[in-house]
Amino acid sequence: MALFRARALFCRCFSTSASHPTHICVVGSGPAGFYTAEKLLKALPNAQVDIIDRLPTPFGLVRSGVAPDHPETKIVVNQFTRVAQHQRCSFFGNIKLGSSISLSDLRELYHTVVLAYGAESDRSLKIPGEDWYGIHSAREFVWWYNGHPDCRNLNPGLKTTDTAVILGQGNVALDVARILLRPTSELGSTDIASHALEALQESSIRKVLLVGRRGPVQAACTAKELREVLGIKNLHIHIREADLLKSPTDEEEVKNSRIQRRVYELLAKAAASGPPHSGTGLRELHFVFFRKPEEFLSSVDEKDHVAGVRFEKTVLEGSSPGKQIARGTGEFEDLDCQMVLKSIGYKSVPIDGLPFDHQKGIVPNIRGRVVSYISGDAIQLEEGLYVCGWLKRGPTGIIATNLYCAQETVASICEDLDKTASGSSFSSSSKPGREGLIHALDDQNVRFVPFSAWEKIDSVEKRLGSLKNKPREKLTTWEELLKVAME
Amino acid sequence: MSLFKLSRNGVRMLKELFIGNSLLVTKASHVRGPFFKYLRTLPQPQPQVQVLQGFKWQEQRLYSTSGPQNGCNEENEPKETISVTFVLKDGEEQQIEVPVGMSMLEAAHQNDIELEGACEGSLACSTCHVIVMDMDYYNKIEEPVDEENDMLDLAFGLTETSRLGCQVIAKPELDGIRLAIPAATRNFAVDGFTPKPH
Q1: Are the beta carbons of B153 and A70 separated by less than 8 Å?
Q2: Helices and strands in chain A, H and E counts
Q3: Bridging pattern class, strands B162-164 and A283-288
């Protein structure tokens, strides 16, 4: 299809090649960025689309978020690569918005700027001890095992403990649990970062607790990831029977949501599957429901080292399905562990000159159009500025969610371009676009990584991987990545 | 897990091979392509790598524009096709002929019908979601495996007769089937769909 589409676009481009192309810059090269670029190229035959990314490598969380043992999920990079290779599209890696170039400069250079730079920070629990040694966000841990250059040196202490607590029960939590518990022999043939594989091979973790504030009906994971973690070899699953009891509101939730029903059924089935098989090297995964973290407990010997978590037991409150919240009961329970991974959600990072809703952690927008302020009925929009992906709707959803998200943002862009073209001076205003960007970067002495340089990194990684029977051996430091890219 | 999935696919394919219509033996020699490829890879030691090779190969198939042959006519037998109507996002209909044994995803792509296929038919996404418009036809398709249901959980605008296009394989009983491609933007923007966490 893509080939057909590309060909169709190619022809259209020749027949309509306008004297003033519409210059569009997409910031961020993850799924949201690439789907936006793809839809823009298709919808606007005279658009020149530039995708910039702060890393020398494209594909965002497909590279640094999707688990190494999910190679099928990463196949979408084939489609993104065809977008990047489109003749009206260019990739500029190693360009950080806000330092390599400012947002206001970018908006001067391009008719339209779409921000799709995702969520590179973490929600915080706001409880005592959160910054202690042994506590990481799941995002950092995921970046670490996926070879993201910013978490190359995370060094989670896998050798100093036999128990890890994961706060949260979404798919990221399940990914992290699976990586901790899966036999490393099975991970060895994935594209997992070699520093992570080595650390996992020496890991002493035998027990992982996945802790959620609410019950099994409200678990935020999906069936695929749950089925996977439940199917790990030599892993005993602990779920307390009592936690599986459903209230009438729970019953209603399960009835209304296919996904919650199937997740619940999997958990119930796992709980019923009986006592552990005896055997050496048996590992344990505990699903702990109705527990809210209250504070971190420090080690007696080493101050500021986590040694446990104090949880408050909870009950669900509220009778409307899907809206039940966990309320503390005043009863507490301590769990010992020397490692905690917080998997309670990602958070977007604001930048200078960009309206930002700190509460929701997103850029306020209407169907992708960035809103500068709302007072009463008056809504002031930021002209030519749009958002897509996690920055637009918050850090949830699967890769495909970005497809629909991009469709919506691109529809808004097209409507606005049509309006300005028919009315104002926009049609005649030309912008420097790509050439201007290259000039500006040159002035700042910033060296960008074009897509062809990523392809060099890609082929080096694949070659290194083939020596180890891995699909690729990722380059995991900025130095290595830039060295190969700039050679 | 890939090995697991692979074997699931393998089992499913085996099942299809022996499901009672003598497809494989007499007609539609292209069936051999993907199925045998998968089966052959099963006993090999590095499942992940093999899976990826399989995908690469499949991709070539998917995006090949080499005309009607597509490597499926090796024995020069008359090719059996069925008629499939796609109801597109804008409501327009497009009728195509699909060789027996070919998936609806592949058929859509070969006919330039806009159906996403992010994972290229490896049961790792829900972007090739189609709605079978007639319950009778829906019942003629083999039950979805768990892995397909897991993906359908996340499909936009899921209905009782939803399937993944990559898992619906053309067979004579499906001649005349109508498949709607859901207009996902509508679901996304208006129906207040809240996507599940990644």
Answers
A1: no
A2: 17, 19
A3: unpaired
ipTM of the complex: 0.89
**What is the C-alpha to C-alpha distance for residues A103 and B139, in angstroms, rounded to an integer?**
54
Give the residues across from A374 on adjacent strands. A379
| Cα dihedral A148, A152, A158, A163 sign | negative
The b/e string for A180-217 (b: 16+ C-beta within 10 A; e otherwise) is bbbebebbbbbbbbbbbbebbeebebebbbbbbbbbbb
Question: Going by C-beta distance under 8 Å and a sequence separation of 6 or more, which residues neighbour residue B69?
Answer: none
Mean of pLDDT values over B47-69: 40
132-151 in chain B: CB under 8 A from chain A = 146-147, 149-151
Whether A1 sits inside 8 A of B59 (CB atoms) is no
CATH 1.10.510.10 fits domain A126-346? no
Closest partner residue to B48 (CB to CB) among A78, A398, A471 is A471
A-chain CB neighbours of B5 within 8 Å are 72
**Pairing between β-strand A369-375 and β-strand A449-450 as defined by DSSP bridges:** unpaired
Name every chain A residue with its beta carbon within 8 A of the beta carbon of B187.
404
Distance from CA of B26 to the nearest CA of A (A): 30
Q: Which fold has domain A7-120+348-486?
A: Rossmann fold (3.40.50)
From the list A72, A170, A224, the residue facing B197 with the nearest CB is A170
Q: In chain B, what are the domains?
A: 90-180 (3.10.20.30)
Count, residues in chain A: 487
Chain segment B162-180, per-residue pLDDT in tens: 999 999 999 999 999 999 9
Q: What is the pLDDT of residue A373?
A: 87
- Kindly report, residue by residue over B13-34, the tens digit of the pLDDT: 444 434 333 333 333 333 333 3
A342, A136 Cβ separation under 8 angstroms = yes
The C-alpha of A301 sits at a distance from chain B's nearest C-alpha, in angstroms, of: 38
Contacts of B115 (CB under 8 A, 6+ apart): A1, B86, B104, B105, B108, B109, B127, B128, B130, B165, B181
How high is the pLDDT of residue B60? 40
What average pLDDT is seen over chain B? 69
Q: Is the dihedral of CA B112, B118, B119, B121 positive or negative?
A: negative
| Ramachandran quadrant class, A262 (left: phi over 0; alpha: psi -120 to 50; beta: rest) | alpha
Instruction: Spell out which residues of chain A touch residue B195, defining contact as CB-CB under 8 Å.
Output: 396-398, 401
What pLDDT band is residue B183 in, cutting at 50, 70 and 90?
confident
Q: Residue A61 annotated as binding?
A: yes
At A423 the pLDDT is 67
Task: Give chain A's residues under pLDDT 50.
Answer: 1-18, 425, 427
Chain A residues within 8 A of B125 when measuring between CB atoms: 73, 76, 398-400
- Minimum-distance CB partner of B153 among A222, A396, A401: A222
* pLDDT of residue B97 exceeding 70: yes
Residues of B in contact with A224 (CB under 8 A): 147, 150-151, 153
**Is B127 an interface residue toward A (CB < 8 Å)?**
yes
Q: What is the pLDDT, as a whole number, of residue B192?
A: 36
Q: Do B188 and A408 touch (CB under 8 A)?
A: yes
In this complex, which of B49, B52, B114 lies closest to A1 when CB atoms are compared?
A: B114
Q: pTM value?
A: 0.84
